């Protein structure tokens, strides 16, 4: 099996993002079945892809929304997510963002520092409200993923470090407009070694017991997102193993009676449903290297340039035997390279190329660098 572009899109101006909504629906069905409604509450991390047609499907599948900016909170509400299904995380929430989220009466703020808790308390008091808060802890658990998308180590800017937690919890007594309802952790993204989630669970178990000893019962635990996808084999593994992911928490997280466990998945929900489709502008051969120069670049998909990440690439126009190509974009940066020395069916000017698994952290990270126009999103 290989990638099929719907026939009606073959003459579209390139580059464009193509979203396979049937695959998105299948992924959501697998996810909600594995979460067993009532057992895990799933929030979708909008930052992976915030296009309205995608959000609306995710909302209709019964997921909540995990937001990391005021703009995302607003987008989630526009897409139809109920305020009591919206959580707001982020290490640098502005006063304006907090005020709007308070006024919308969202379910929970994932708070990341003492000064943030103080601001939440002040702004909530001024509105005559109480801010429900989960403390985002930095559990110092290694996610075994790329350094730029590791978030749960002491060296990372995220969360409250374990050594500060006692002071933070004691300080809550002086914040009457903040209500502690849970613990939150998010240790990284594109996690494929699932035992990492067992380590996280054990850390949360210890913390929970420690908090209970101090008189804090927690109705909610939020274990974050981070489940990885198979960038190498998008056709054989289009849907992540959600059962194995939830199984780690079922096995290792000690849940109190009637306690709700929340997860926040982004990439695992949308990555495989998106493809960046581009046309070959030129094939340029030097003595050492054969370049396929595309009309898409790091402005449409920055992950290879930013993280050196792998995306499966196919020439969907050519049936010829394969040759090795460096696949590059038109942007004036040497890092504007999608892949080096990959095998593609022999490529000619005008061929269509599919860059797979681009549904997460693709379009949302696009830019207009070099004054490029925004690529269109097409759905089917
Ligand atoms: C980015 C993010 C997520 C989603 O991460 P994925 O790896 O895409 O699942 C979840 N929670 C928080 C707080 C995040 O910042």
UniProtKB/TrEMBL annotation:
Cofactor field: pyridoxal 5'-phosphate
Enzyme class: lyase
Keyword Signal part of the UniProt annotation: no
Documented EC number(s): 4.1.1.20
Domain Orn/DAP/Arg decarboxylase 2 N-terminal: 39-271
Modification sites for N6-(pyridoxal phosphate)lysine: 47
Keywords: Amino-acid biosynthesis, Decarboxylase, Lyase, Lysine biosynthesis, Pyridoxal phosphate
Catalytic residues (UniProt): 332 (proton donor)
Pfam families attached to this UniProt entry: Orn_Arg_deC_N, Orn_DAP_Arg_deC
Domain Orn/DAP/Arg decarboxylase 2 C-terminal residues, every copy: 16-359
Keyword Secreted set for record: no
Pathway noted in the entry: Amino-acid biosynthesis; L-lysine biosynthesis via DAP pathway; L-lysine from DL-2,6-diaminopimelate: step 1/1
Catalytic reaction list: meso-2,6-diaminopimelate + H(+) = L-lysine + CO2
Ligand binding (pyridoxal 5'-phosphate): 226, 264-267, 361
GO molecular-function term, one example from the UniProt record: diaminopimelate decarboxylase activity
GO biological process, one term: lysine biosynthetic process via diaminopimelate
InterPro entries: Ala_racemase/Decarboxylase_C, DAP_deCOOHase_LysA, De-COase2_C, De-COase2_CS, De-COase2_N, De-COase2_pyr-phos_BS, Orn/DAP/Arg_de-COase, PLP-binding_barrel
Residues the entry annotates as binding substrate: 267, 303, 307, 333, 361
Transmembrane annotation, as ranges: none
PANTHER family in the record: DIAMINOPIMELATE DECARBOXYLASE (PTHR43727), GROUP IV DECARBOXYLASE (PTHR43727:SF2)
Family membership: Belongs to the Orn/Lys/Arg decarboxylase class-II family. LysA subfamily.
Function: Specifically catalyzes the decarboxylation of meso-diaminopimelate (meso-DAP) to L-lysine.
Quaternary structure, from the entry: Homodimer.
Name of the protein described by the UniProt record: Diaminopimelate decarboxylase
Record gene name: lysA
């Amino acid at each position: 099996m290989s990638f099929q572009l719907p026939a009606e899109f073959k003459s579209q101006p390139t580059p464009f993002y193509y979203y396979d909504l049937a695959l998105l629906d299948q992924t959501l069905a697998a996810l909600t079945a594995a979460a067993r409604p009532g057992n895990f509450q799933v929030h979708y991390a909008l930052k992976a892809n915030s296009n309205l047609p995608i959000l609306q499907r995710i909302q209709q599948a019964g997921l909540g929304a995990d937001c990391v900016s005021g703009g995302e909170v607003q987008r989630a509400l526009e897409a139809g997510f109920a305020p009591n299904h919206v959580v707001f995380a982020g290490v640098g929430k502005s006063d304006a963002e907090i005020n709007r989220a308070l006024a919308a009466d969202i379910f929970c703020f994932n708070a990341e520092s003492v000064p943030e808790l103080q601001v939440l308390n002040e702004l909530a008091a001024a509105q005559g409200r109480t801010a429900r808060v989960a403390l985002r802890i930095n559990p110092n658990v290694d996610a075994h993923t790329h350094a730029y998308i590791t978030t749960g180590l002491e060296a990372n800017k995220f969360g409250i470090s374990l050594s500060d937690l006692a002071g933070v919890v004691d300080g809550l007594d002086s914040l009457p407009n903040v209500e502690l309802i849970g613990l939150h952790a998010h240790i990284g993204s594109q996690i494929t070694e699932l035992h990492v989630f067992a380590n996280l669970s054990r850390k949360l178990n210890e913390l929970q017991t420690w908090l209970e000893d101090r008189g804090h019962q927690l109705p909610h635990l939020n274990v974050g997102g981070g489940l990885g996808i198979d960038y190498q084999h998008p056709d054989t593994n289009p849907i992540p193993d959600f059962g194995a992911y939830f199984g780690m928490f079922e096995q290792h997280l000690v849940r109190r009676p009637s306690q709700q466990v929340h997860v926040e998945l982004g990439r695992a929900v949308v990555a495989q449903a998106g493809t960046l489709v581009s046309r070959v502008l030129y094939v340029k051969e030097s003595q050492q290297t054969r370049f396929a120069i595309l009309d898409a670049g790091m402005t449409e998909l920055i992950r290879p340039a930013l993280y050196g990440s792998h995306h499966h690439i196919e020439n969907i126009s050519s049936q010829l035997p394969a040759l090795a190509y460096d696949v590059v974009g038109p942007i004036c940066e040497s890092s504007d390279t999608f892949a080096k020395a990959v095998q593609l069916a022999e490529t000619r000017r005008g061929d269509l190329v599919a860059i797979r698994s681009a549904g997460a952290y693709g379009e949302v990270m696009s830019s207009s660098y070099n004054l490029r126009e925004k690529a269109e999103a097409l759905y089917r």
